[in-house]
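ERR on first pass: missing label on line 2. Operator R.T. fixed the label and resubmitted. Corrected input:
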Amino acid sequence: MEEKILELERRIKQLEATKKKDQLSMVVFSGELDKLLAAMIIATGATAMDMEVKLFFTFWAISALRDKEKRAEKKELTSKMFGAMLPKGTSDVKLSKMNMAGAGLSMLKSLMKKKNVASLEDLLQTAGELGVEINICEMSMNLMGFSKDEMIDYPKLDYCGVGTYLSDAEESAIQLFI
Amino acid sequence: MSQEELVAIQADKVVDARGTACPGPLLAAKKAIAEIKSGEVMEILSADEGTKKDIPKWATKKNHEYMGTVEESGFFKIYLRKA
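pass 2 clean. output:
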């Protein structure tokens, strides 16, 4: 009898250790406004549902986190060129569909205002206030020719590698890739 | 709860989230519920259709009692009792 109880206790401990946290891990890969909006709406919504939220920004999405006002120092020429071709901050990002040289983009932006949908800038601000963590993939940031000096001021901003994302994702009840 | 009973409720806190679309009302509700005591009633005004389904789901997760929704013209009122 006692042995059985001990065995059960051991099993419960094991289960508790592997139980998923009430946490959302999201890879934000895309750099277009529509996809970034979806990512940030889910992220802020998840905090309302009392989930911990960890975003892992990689590749094209990192463009949106560049600060227009900041200048990066000491870049190689190719990095400079690549960086110049990529959007600089949220105000520069385009639509994945129907961008139509910016016409579709400005139509969507005016519709969003009319329908009280928060802008990407507002969503980032809200996410910061709600404690959403943003981790930037250091490798892809360097690859795109960006540097830490040109990233926005955001409360919980950090730099990491794929291992951090994986260990966060492993313990999260929800994992997404956008 | 019947519509008559819901309409008669005097909420302890009213949150007007009509100026925001998803996820605005949910965020507003989360913020506001921290400002009332257990057992008190909160009324959320929203014009965002999705909120009608979202708030009850959120309430269930947080063990708040979802009391019901009253339709008005162009918006609706959702009633919750804090756990």
